[in-house]
Input
Amino acid sequence: MTRPISFPEDGAQRRKIYLGDGERPDLRVPFTEVLLGDSPSASGPVPNPALRLYDASGPGSDPEKGLPPLRRQWILGRSDVEEYEGRPVAARDDGRGASARDGAGLRGSTQWRAARSLPLRARRSPSGKSVATQRHYARSRVITEEMRFAALREGVDPEVVREELAAGRAILPANINHPESEPMIIGKRFLVKVNANIGNSSVSSSIAEEVDKLTWATRWGADTVMDLSTGPDIHTTREWIIRNSPVPIGTVPIYQALEKVNGSPEELSWELYRDTLIEQAEQGVDYVTVHAGVLLRYVPLAAGRLTGIVSRGGSIMAAWCLAHHRENFLYENFDELCAIAAAYDVALSLGDGLRPGSVADANDEAQFSELRTLGELTEVAWRHDAQVMIEGPGHVPLHKIPENVALQQQLCHEAPFYTLGPLTIDVAPGYDHITSAIGAAVIGMHGTAMLCYVTPKEHLGLPGREDVKQGMIAYKIAAHAADLAKGHPGAQDWDDALSKARFEFRWGDQFNLGIDPETAQAFHDETLPATPAKTAHFCSMCGPKFCAMRISQDVKDYASTHGMPVSVAVSQGMREKADEFREKGSNLYVEPGV
Amino acid sequence: MTRPISFPEDGAQRRKIYLGDGERPDLRVPFTEVLLGDSPSASGPVPNPALRLYDASGPGSDPEKGLPPLRRQWILGRSDVEEYEGRPVAARDDGRGASARDGAGLRGSTQWRAARSLPLRARRSPSGKSVATQRHYARSRVITEEMRFAALREGVDPEVVREELAAGRAILPANINHPESEPMIIGKRFLVKVNANIGNSSVSSSIAEEVDKLTWATRWGADTVMDLSTGPDIHTTREWIIRNSPVPIGTVPIYQALEKVNGSPEELSWELYRDTLIEQAEQGVDYVTVHAGVLLRYVPLAAGRLTGIVSRGGSIMAAWCLAHHRENFLYENFDELCAIAAAYDVALSLGDGLRPGSVADANDEAQFSELRTLGELTEVAWRHDAQVMIEGPGHVPLHKIPENVALQQQLCHEAPFYTLGPLTIDVAPGYDHITSAIGAAVIGMHGTAMLCYVTPKEHLGLPGREDVKQGMIAYKIAAHAADLAKGHPGAQDWDDALSKARFEFRWGDQFNLGIDPETAQAFHDETLPATPAKTAHFCSMCGPKFCAMRISQDVKDYASTHGMPVSVAVSQGMREKADEFREKGSNLYVEPGV
Output
């Protein structure tokens, strides 16, 4: 059914390939293919099939140009969207820092696009309709190119993708103004996904750094990236990120709205927020976190907590509610918000503004009250055919994780769960990628569809390049641990291929199959730097003279050369084997390079 | 009940203290005490009590002298052991490398002790008796000083320690020839413990490096250390390690026995093994891994596996069984082995020689067959009053972990479980401290008593100093996550103290309460290096102008200054609060250093 289209890095042991579905030539789905060496056997070398891995790294690009608009023809081909002159970009869209910049003036989307001859017009569903969402198509029994693409990536039938989307159990974030993205699906029946947060703040980072972090995050497997910028050039940074992103981009629009009112939450309004949401939807943001469940009456529930409100968006909305003694304007205007989101196919990620900030506050009344409201809002969004997922904690000790997922699935009608960690303990600042990878693996096993990574800098500072890598790797580990535990079809093939390579001392294959080949090889070389060691039939743990794996290989070889099931090898041939063993003597131990 | 005895590092924010039980002046139990700053409140600063943490780091020492023999008087005071001239140390005790050394000749225990005026004689129970084991005392309803010490460390009644030991649900590894050790207990009703493996191999490391790794491992919280040396100077390395170790030392005697026969497993014999066991028991080894469950008939079960036999000890015994077509000599002579172990109170750690080496092989017939045999052997050991724990895997995907623990507890009559990881996936060489910390936390939650750490170098090379630290920290995280999940009394106090400090921006307290204060502070300083930032009431994530935690502090303050339960703060005072909020304006945001 699938066939390779091209091998851009032919000859390499680990390379990107594209597979099609044999029907549509413009459906080119990327995979990482790892070519493997032969296995030794008594009857000569036995070839091992190449292994294909899910690949989120994108085609690579010149950041100044942006990525090619892969989905453009698919979107236009459906003939159900209108192009229009988008809202004019204003100076304040770039936040408080805009005027303090290096004199280049506004570098917003209009100028950026004009300079690159990109279309200046935005796309949306015709007024009053929401025909352009993947949920709408799925419910109309239409299998889009995006669904086919995601199905090929996942190795499932496109109908499975459509069904899960139609039922609301999955989302396919794909803003029609972000045609550069490679479609992917988030839902519990699919591979567990990982989101990486990037973004500048008022105390650090530049635009170029953020684009570099985006590319770096997807290189390590980020399935989506959230731009949480709060610093200068907020609009322009996002434009650069979206135009260069092969993965869906998420944001928290209230962060930008707050910058537009100089950081004073009480000056926020629905009108300002709506304008910001449209601004971001026109740019191509694929999903937005909306803290519409932080209701006025829930705010005091957080006051009795050990760590109050730790969600930035949650505290902004709480501050607004307190300042005006009015209900959350996102909740009050949620219908209109959904209609805007649906017009661009911006997926809604219902934020957990009252998520616990410590294990002490996990699964408390504040958190679960908000969750109940998110369940109601899910139904509202679905009525608009907007795609929805639900954000989750945070800090949760291991034994409280199952209840958290079960309640989310029940209250939110199986809408996909998207959790931050959770951190399972509070006492390891500097290592929260690990404290939370533990929780992420377990919450993933219980049905969470996407994990938001946590870096070693959590609680301490903004992640740099190395932190992004460490966070991503910890979370790819957690996601794969969950895939295995869920019995995801094909997930274990990867482990089996690596373990077989390990057992057969195919060191190069072991490195190439690993999540981080370079680090694995570097660690190996620290103990055994000589080149022959890479093909040596021993590992450094036991040294060249004895190796645990050799003896079991010997048992296996014996059984297979005598053509008997291994279970009867002892009774039929052990005596003979014993003699042979003694005769061979030290031949059991293979010397380096032999 | 407990009272501080001394403050060796008085004045420091994080310092070692010793607590006694008010009865025995020589019972001085170490703790790490973290002194905390005041919490701000509307009515002025409120002091926070100091937090005391379990401390395995030992008193520190000059490696050339060794540690003071803390337990010597307790052991002699029981008047139930005899001193005798130990077996003479032979050149081959130092393994194949002995003759190739730097010309210093044998530096074995006899010479080492003589040079330091330490007793040359060994202690044991009188022939034919096993009166000296902690299990024996516990079953005789005697609460030893060791039990009191362990109970104080754990914060439980000494009778709980005695009961668990008597029932076989816990062990207190305390060889009477290792009086330097600080007693600790391993059992599911106590804090989850972590073991660190160190040891040289034929391809790397020196004696001094290994002693340094021991001290380094306990500095990061290792509760026991296993010396897995297989390289040169094996006897002498162990002597240095034991004399300098405040924690129980474990070994795998078959490794040394194999060195004595130049690495040829078929030349091993019960007599050689017994002599090696006595050699190590006289030196003071506290527990030994014994692969007595690798029966001849189980060996072929491993041949059908993806990764055969990966336990080094398991494969040595399998090789011996194959070579001689005879039953495992450790199994055949297990009664005598137990008698020797009991005479010195060497605890037995029944090795899982057939543990899975990949997720594909987890929970298979080979593994569970051996486990059934370990259950039988547990009962044999208990008849000798030897202390026993059971080793476990290895590589196990998350969903198969609960069955693993449940079966071990059932088949082995609740003897403590001691697991290596397990790794939950196979595809992250270079990051197996993380793949396995996930499994370790979950298996700990289900009742595993001690976790054997895995370092980033697993499968790739021998761990160096930094690997030991990274492995230890990942496992202290896993152990604490399990303690929280089990609802261990007092475990959450630590998290709550840190989370409170975090919420109140007491940065110094947050660092000092962390598992690795230096790293936490260094990470913080990368983003906000200026000194005022350490006392700033904001964090670098949101910058100085807005902070999520501030707003919830504000809600809390409001409720408390108005003397009302927080739950009614909204209904009674929200309008007033709203006015106040608008008036205060930007005072909500605290500037750096203010």
Remarks:
- The mean pLDDT of chain B is 86.
